[in-house]
Amino acid sequence: MAEVYTVGISAFAAAANKTAVTIAAGTTRRARLLKIVFGQVSAPASTDASAEWQLRRWTADGTGTAVTPAQNDPLGPAAILTSKVNYSAEPTYATGALAFIGINQRATYTWSPIQETEKILTDLTSGHGIGLQAISVPSSSTWDITVWFEE
Predict the structure, then answer these.
(1) Distance between CA 43 and CA 128 in Å, rounded?
(2) What is the largest CA-CA distance in the chain?
(3) CA–CA separation, 81 vs 23, rounded Å?
(4) What is the C-alpha to C-alpha distance for residues 141 and 125, in angstroms, rounded to an integer?
């Protein structure tokens, strides 16, 4: 049975082309994304604005803050895969995106695959992974983001 974990960041100071959260691939386990919930928590801009996010594959990790994925089952095993948040040096992303997500600044958004075949998976290559990157966001916006994945 697959184990489910969560990873996230609170009050992420979003900026153009800045990665909020990643899950690194392993050589023995793959991550399957189950759900992503995110929304702006700072005061909205004076004019209605939107944000664009992309879910992307990376082929070389950057510099971020390591976080330990939380176990959904307190009696389950610790996660094998690793995660980082709040990147100061971006990962090297593959061309294109797995998902393009536009959000109004006043909305909370949930991405969740409807069918098993829609789940986005990591590969089995060390040094690869999946990241959620802000492409364009309202200035001075902060976001809360939580990602659920199974391995």
Answers:
(1) 35
(2) 48
(3) 7
(4) 34
Smallest CA-to-CA distance from 61 within 77, 79, 81 is with 81
Share of the chain above pLDDT 90, in %: 74
The helix/strand count (H/E) of the chain reads as: 0, 12
Tokens 């095993």 correspond to what residue?
77
CA distance linking residue 62 with residue 40, whole number of Å: 24
SS3 65: strand
In this predicted model, what pLDDT tens digit does every residue of 45-69 receive, in sequence order? 777 788 899 999 999 999 999 999 9
Q: Are 80 and 26 in contact (CB under 8 A)?
A: yes
Residue with tokens 């153009």: 16
Give tens-digit pLDDT for 107-122: 899 999 988 888 999 9
Give the amino acid at 60: A
Q: To the nearest 10°, the Cα dihedral for 118, 68, 70, 127?
A: 20
Is the four-CA dihedral 11, 108, 61, 79 of positive or negative sign? positive
